Amino acid sequence: MQVGQITGALGALAAAAAVSAAAWRFGALTGGGAVAATLVGGAVFGFGGLGPAVVLVLFFVSSSALSALPGGGSRARRGARQVIANGSVAALAASLHAAHDLMGLVFLGSVAAATADTWATEIGVRLGRQPRSILTLRPRPAGSSGAVSIPGTLGAAGGSLAVALAGTGLVAGPGAAGLVAVAAGGFIGSLVDSALGDALQAVYRCPACGARPEVAGHEGCVVRAARVGGLPGLDNDVVNWLATTAGGAVTVIVLADGCSFPSGHLPSSRPAGQ
């Protein structure tokens, strides 16, 4: 590795660490979450360039801003597992951009899915009057896994479209066809999240505090919650990871043969058209 590459990698990590530290001070990340965000952001910025890094920041800032709005209950900080679940596919896609041109689409589709899912949850909790199961349409408590509402579904579409539009402006790529593919991939990824959450996701209950968290280790309690339903190991973080993977894969499938990026470059280091 040359001196310039080492300097660039250190600069990317430093920039990601600065953003992560600010998020930690703001209360959006735990300490472990800040470390994980530094690694994810450093990989995206270091391998992909400024454009993808801005798209990733758009996801995090918009999601944190929505979660800070009143009416959503207590705001939980993102831990390391949650950061990795939402960002590892994007980081891997950025890191493998030299292996295949389609990695740019995988990156955008995975971020679009994470954004769509978060926007759907935050908007649905606040505006959805009676959420229903995505599979059975039976009424479900607001904020529960697999529960959907019209406002939440519109929020998912809006979050996915926001990433698609940002990707078109910040990531050089296949133009209008890519925009449609990213928006579709992100939205379908959020639906995958809801379907898995409704049908298979593990259900937990804490014997100490009585909470019903989406993962066994929950903030504010030292006792791990016990699984009372669903598949072992398939907690909310795993479902989020599967959804971001689906978002990236569906984006590529939708665009199919119509994608062509400059060889050896994630289409990210400069806005399209420059």
Key phrases:
274 residues, mainly alpha, two-stranded antiparallel ribbon, 8 helices, 4 strands
Characterise the protein shown here.
It is a single chain. This protein has a two-stranded antiparallel ribbon. It has a two-stranded antiparallel ribbon with strand order 3-4. It contains eight helices and four strands; from the N terminus they run αααααββααββα. Helix 3 (50-68) packs antiparallel against helix 6 and helix 5 packs across helix 8. The chain has 274 residues and is mainly α. It is globular.
Structural class: mainly alpha
Major beta sheet, strand line-up? 1-2
Low-confidence stretches: 259-274
Mean pLDDT: 86
Strand content: under 5%
Tertiary shape: globular
Radius of gyration equals 18 Å
First CA to last CA: what distance? 29 Å
Total strands: 4
**Helix fraction?**
55-70%
Total number of helical segments?
A: 8
Strand-and-helix sequence, N→C?
Answer: HHHHHEEHHEEH
**What's the story with the biggest beta sheet?**
2 strands, antiparallel
